[in-house]
Amino acid sequence: MKKQIFIFSILSIFFTLHLQAQQAIPASIQKHIKKASGDEVKKHIAYLADDKLKGRLPGTPEYKTAIEYVEKQLKKLKIQPAGENGSYRQAVTIRTTSNVKEKSSISLINGSNKEKLEAGKDYVLLADPNTTQSSLTAGVVFAGYGISAPEIGHDDYKGVDAKGKIVLLLWGVPEGKFGSSENAHFGNFRSKYEMAYEQGASGVIIVAPPVIGDNFSRIAGRYGRSGRVAVSPDGKTSGYRSNPFSDIRFVSVMSWSGVAKLLGQANKSSRELAGMLYSSEEDVRIKSKVQVVSVSEHEEFTTYNVVGVMEGSDPKLKDEYVIHSAHLDHVGVGNAVEGDSIYNGAHDNASGSASLLEIARLYTSLKKNQPRRSILFLWVTAEEMGLLGSLYFGANPTVPKEQIVADINTDMPTLIAPLLSIEPLGAEHSSLMNEVKAAAGHLGLEVMADHMPEQVRFVRSDQYSFILQGIPSLHIKYGLKTSDPNKDLTAKIEDYTENVYHKPSDELNDLFDFKAARTYVQLNFLISYQVAQEEQRPEWNGDSFFRRFAQ
Predict the structure, then answer these.
(1) Higher-confidence residue: 450 or 326?
(2) Which residue, among 229, 243, 378, 210, has the nearest Cα to 305 in the 3D structure?
(3) Is the dihedral of CA 172, 176, 178, 181 positive or negative?
(4) Does residue 18 have a pLDDT over 50?
(5) Going by DSSP bridges, is the β-strand pair 289-310/133-142 parallel, antiparallel, or unpaired?
(6) CA–CA separation, 112 and 90 (whole Å)
(7) Rounded CA gap, 273 and 266, in Å?
(8) pLDDT band, residue 211 (cuts 50/70/90)
(9) Which domains, from first to last, does the chain contain?
(10) Is a pLDDT exceeding 70 seen at residue 461?
(11) What is the 3-class SS of 108-167, one letter each residue?
């Protein structure tokens, strides 16, 4: 009998929670979302991913055509401009930087001895986006992974005096120490720059991963090319891989041959050197000073974010904003594959931009129960160049920053199978998970954890730019649940990644599932609608590292 009572109690709790999730969404809204149309999403993708737009590369006439299409749709929906000067547009200056190798150098100084390192073999010097010429001679201190997060029990800078010095840092993050989102954040270069800047460092050297061994060519090829940043009106730069802090005079990636010379251990192998640097028991002291001369070239062009707003219905809450974002750009024209050189970007991210237009249509067709908060619709530029459009908007929003309560980002929904489960990247760090679960529960979708933490997707899309501004944000990705046990969705996604992602074959074709597109639109609408209606704005969880950005 007790067992039966226990089971009954558990079932009662389950159904009560389920009912509460259902009741959080008004009946009129449950009915309204049935108006979402996969055909509308398809229509927008067909235009944005057409060959005539040539891959929507920022700064080109074709990207301007994509902007004009979105603006035309916003006018049709009677969504008000929220850009600059009464327009839908926000101008974004992009600076392209490249290192002048023949005029740049890194040397080691030991007393009266000076040893010039070999560029491309011992190191790669990243282009400086803040100045065209700088020089620095300073001592070097080792600071582990360069992670300063004492609030979650890890501080590589504890006991390290980095002020005015060059910090030598390990690539990536310590294995098994943090969650997937924290790994993604701490492992990216921008976080290492920011924490070095907070410690007063004047330069950063990042050691190449030990798995690279002495084969440095891949690193040199990737990081020795030009970099890009967005430039604010006050001259400050925002970048993802590029260093945005002018007080940090240079950034270099150093090979293990370079590290051996820096440590005065030229006789040791990369494996032995890694054993020293990765050991918590080794006291790594560096006698050599480093002298750096960095010469960079800068070029600039202007591109645009597109911003529209639907004003909220509540006299007080209408001054707060829930953002729906998606990036409008792709990578343009590139190397031909089977005779096709246009990288159309149908999935990445015409599908996200199209979904955002359909979410906007759902909002503007509401007859009652209109959102209390204002809904800001944002199509950002230059995501493929390193989240530059969203980083710029985050630093220079067209509405008061303190009045932005959340960002719900849509990037490459990957609409290639029935949508049965989701992975809400970033939602686990804030109260936004409540809205996600309620919306998913209404649509019968299972909420799952990120199945690809190694891909650091959390920091690779535009929601990350808002998180860095202290704004709770999320990005809904596909889960792996399938109704057909004979179909391996993981294999299908891997095939897509291998043969379609960032390739000319990313076109509008039979790979798309537009029933899934309709569900995806409904889901994102329901999440933002709940946020817009709640009296309390979303909050960071007390134990989330990312709440530090809101303080």
Answers:
(1) 326
(2) 378
(3) positive
(4) no
(5) antiparallel
(6) 54
(7) 10
(8) low
(9) 32-92+301-550 (3.40.630.10), 96-299 (3.50.30.30)
(10) yes
(11) EEECCEEEECCECCCEEECCCCCCCEEEEEEEEEECCCCCEEHHHCEECCCCCCCCCCEE
Instruction: Mark out the alpha helices in 321-462 (DSSP H runs).
Output: 351-364, 388-395, 432-443
CA distance linking residue 312 with residue 370, whole number of Å: 7
Rounded to whole angstroms, the Cα distance separating 275 from 204 reads 21
Mean pLDDT rounded to a whole number for the chain? 91
- Whole-angstrom Cα distance, residue 419 to residue 421? 6
Annotate 45-81 with three-state secondary structure.
HHHHCCHHHCCCCCCCHHHHHHHHHHHHHHHHCCCEE
Has residue 57 got a pLDDT over 80? yes
Convert the pLDDT of each residue in 70-99 to its tens digit.
Answer: 999 999 999 999 999 999 999 999 999 999
Retrieve residue 378's tokens: 């944002």
Confidence of residue 444 (pLDDT cuts 50, 70, 90): very high
The three-class DSSP label of residue 547 is helix
How does pLDDT run across 352-362, given as a tens digit for each residue? 999 999 999 99
C-alpha 206/C-alpha 188 separation (Å) is 11
The C-alpha atoms of residue 170 and residue 208 are separated, in whole angstroms, by: 7
Residue among 448, 468, 531 nearest 238 (CA) = 468
Whole-structure pTM value:
0.91
Distance CA 497, CA 379 (A): 24
CA distance 347 to 493: 12
Phi and psi at residue 100, in whole multiples of 5°? -90, 95
pLDDT digits (tens, 9 = 90+) for 96-139: 999 999 999 999 999 999 999 999 999 999 999 999 999 999 99
Q: What is the mean pLDDT of residues 413-442?
A: 95
Distance CA 73, CA 75 (A): 5
d(CA 501, CA 477): 15
**Length in residues, the chain:** 551
**By the 8 A CB rule, do 518 and 37 touch?**
yes
C-alpha of 27 from chain center: 35
What is the helix (H) or strand (E) element at residue 182, kind and residue range?
A: helix 180-187
Return the structure tokens found at 306: 């597109």
User: What letter represents residue 380's amino acid?
Assistant: V
**Res. 290: pLDDT tops 70:** yes
SS (HEC) of 455-515: HCHHHCCCHHHHHCCCCCEEEEEECCCCCCCCCCHHHHHHHHHHHCCCCCCCCCCCCCCHH
